[in-house]
Specification:
alpha+beta, transmembrane helix, Cyt_c_oxidase_su2, metal-binding
Length: 438
C-alpha cells in the first residue's frame, strides 16, 4: 500500500503528472502490465498442476488441431492487419485534427460515396474470406471416413461410458469401458456421442474439438492423434453438482497394441473367484446385495463382461482392475501397483461405502445406512460392514485384462515426465474421502 501511495501519479492539486512524475507513472504502468501478464500465465500453468498433465488445443499431433491452426493463422493475420490499420488511422486522425492545430470547422463527409463503399466492401471481403476458410475446414473435418474406427460415447451424471460397436464380446454385448477411452493412433476415430440425462460437453483438447452430448441425439464426428500417450478429457457443459469431477482419460495406442487390446477385451470373461475367498464373498455381495440390511446389489447398475451383471445405470466395470482412475477421474493411481497401495484401497473403500458424500450428486446408493437421492427422493441406504466392503473391493481388483493387453503399460502420460511421482503427489494431498477416513 505504501508503494501505491508513494507513486500514485497525482500531484497534491490532482493535476496529471508531468516530467519525472509522468515518467515514473509510465514506468509503473509498464511494470504492472508485465506483472499482470506473468500472473495470468502463472494461473494458466498452475491450472494443470493437479495432474501435471499438459492439456493443449494447439497439440499439432492431431489432424483436427492442425486444420484449425491452419485456419487460425489467416484469421490472426487478418486481425493484426485490421488492428494496425485502424489504430494507425485513429492516431493519425486524432493527431492531425487536434484542437490546438485546427481552428476551422471540421470537413463534413456526408454523401461521400467512395468512403461509404470502402467501409462496406472491405468488411464484406474479410468476412467472406473467413467464411471460405471455415467452410473448407468443415469440409475436411466433418465427413466420416468409411475405414474410421468407431466408438460410442455415453455421457451421464457424472461419468462416461465408451463402447466399441464393431467389437462383439464373446460373452455377449459390445466391448465397453467406463471413464477410460482407448483409441488407435494415426487414423480417424468416429465418435458417436449422446447423453443419458442432461446436456454434457465432450472435450479432450489434444485429440480434437469439443461436441455437445445431448439426450436422444446422436452426433458423430472425427478425432485423431499421431502420438501414443494418455490425454485428459473433461465435461465442458455445466451439468450438475459434480460437473467439475466428470473427467475421463483418452489412451491412444499404436495399431498393434490397440488390436491386442480389442482382441483381449473381446475374449474377456471375468475370473471366477476361489471358493471361500474374500473375492468370492465380494462377488456374492456384488451380485445379490445383502437383503437382510437393505444393501442393494451392485449388479443392478453395473455390467461385468462374462457374468450375469448387466446393469446400464452405472459405468461398465468389466476391466476395473486394469483402470487407473476412480470416480470419473477424481483420483488417479498411476504407479504400477495402483490398486494395491494403502491409499488407493482407502479411497476405493470410501467410494463404495458412501459415494454421494465423496462425489456430490452421485446416484450410487450408500452402504453405511445414510440417506441418498434416488429418483428425486431421499432414500435410506443399506448397510455393509467394513469387512464386506473390503470384500467387494477385493473382487473388483481382480477384474483385469491380460497383462499384454494392459493399455496403461508403457504408455506415457502426455506432459508428465514422471507419472508415478505425479500420482503419488496427487494421492498424498487428497484428504480422507469420508469423515474420519476408513
Amino acid at each position: 500500500m505504501n508503494t501505491i501511495h508513494r507513486h500514485s501519479g497525482q500531484s497534491q492539486g490532482g493535476h496529471p503528472p508531468h516530467g519525472k512524475s509522468g515518467a515514473a507513472a509510465r514506468e509503473r504502468l509498464r511494470r504492472n502490465l508485465g506483472y499482470g501478464v506473468m500472473a495470468g500465465l502463472g494461473v494458466t500453468l498452475l491450472s494443470g498442476c493437479g495432474s501435471r498433465q499438459l492439456i493443449s488445443m494447439g497439440d499439432l499431433a492431431s489432424g483436427f488441431n492442425r486444420e484449425v491452426a491452419f485456419m487460425s493463422i489467416f484469421a490472426i493475420v487478418m486481425s493484426v492487419i485490421i488492428f494496425v490499420a485502424v489504430s494507425y488511422a485513429l492516431f493519425y486522425t486524432v493527431n492531425k485534427f487536434r484542437d490546438d492545430k485546427n481552428t476551422a470547422p471540421p470537413a463534413q463527409f456526408h454523401g461521400n460515396n467512395r468512403l461509404e463503399v470502402i467501409l462496406v466492401v472491405v468488411p464484406v471481403i474479410i468476412v467472406m474470406a473467413l467464411a471460405v476458410l471455415t467452410v473448407r475446414s468443415m469440409a475436411i473435418l466433418n465427413p466420416v471416413p468409411d475405414q474410421a474406427s468407431k466408438i460410442d460415447v455415453l455421457a451421464r451424471q457424472f461419468w462416461w461410458n465408451f463402447s466399441y460397436p464393431e467389437v462383439k464380446a464373446d460373452a455377449g454385448g459390445n466391448v465397453t469401458n467406463g471413464n477410460e477411452m482407448i483409441m488407435p493412433t494415426k487414423q480417424s476415430v468416429a465418435l458417436t456421442i449422446t447423453s443419458g440425462d442432461v446436456i454434457h460437453g465432450f472435450w479432450a483438447p489434444n485429440i480434437g474439438g469439443q461436441r455437445a452430448a445431448m439426450p436422444a441425439t446422436l452426433k458423430t464426428w472425427n478425432v485423431d492423434i499421431d502420438r501414443a500417450a494418455v490425454y485428459q478429457g473433461n465435461c465442458t457443459q455445466l451439468c450438475g453438482a459434480s460437473h467439475a469431477n466428470m473427467r475421463y482419460k483418452v489412451i491412444a495406442l499404436d495399431q498393434a497394441r490397440y488390436n491386442s487390446f480389442l482382441a483381449a477385451a473381446k475374449a474377456y470373461r471375468a475370473p471366477e473367484p476361489a471358493a471361500d475367498s474374500a473375492e468370492a464373498r465380494g462377488y456374492a455381495i456384488f451380485m445379490q446385495g445383502k437383503p437382510a440390511t437393505g444393501a442393494l446389489a451392485c449388479a443392478a447398475c453395473h455390467r461385468i463382461q462374462g457374468t450375469t451383471a448387466a446393469g446400464v445405470a452405472g459405468p461398465d466395470l468389466s476391466f476395473f482392475g486394469t483402470r487407473r482412475t476412480l470416480g470419473a477421474g477424481m483420483w488417479e493411481f498411476m504407479e504400477e501397483e495402483h490398486w494395491e497401495t494403502p491409499r488407493a484401497k482407502e479411497i476405493l473403500h470410501a467410494w463404495i461405502k458412501h459415494s454421494p458424500y465423496v462425489k456430490p450428486g452421485s446416484l450410487m446408493p450408500t452402504y453405511d445406512g445414510s440417506e441418498y437421492t434416488a429418483n428425486g427422493k431421499q432414500v435410506k441406504g443399506g448397510v455393509l460392514t467394513d469387512e464386506e466392503i473390503d470384500d467387494v473391493a477385493a473382487y473388483l481388483r481382480t477384474l483385469k485384462l491380460p497383462e499384454e493387453a494392459n493399455y496403461w503399460n508403457d504408455t506415457p502420460v502426455y506432459g508428465s515426465s514422471d507419472a508415478a511421482q505425479n500420482a503419488s503427489a496427487q494421492i498424498a494431498k487428497t484428504s480422507s474421502p469420508v469423515p474420519g477416513g476408513k
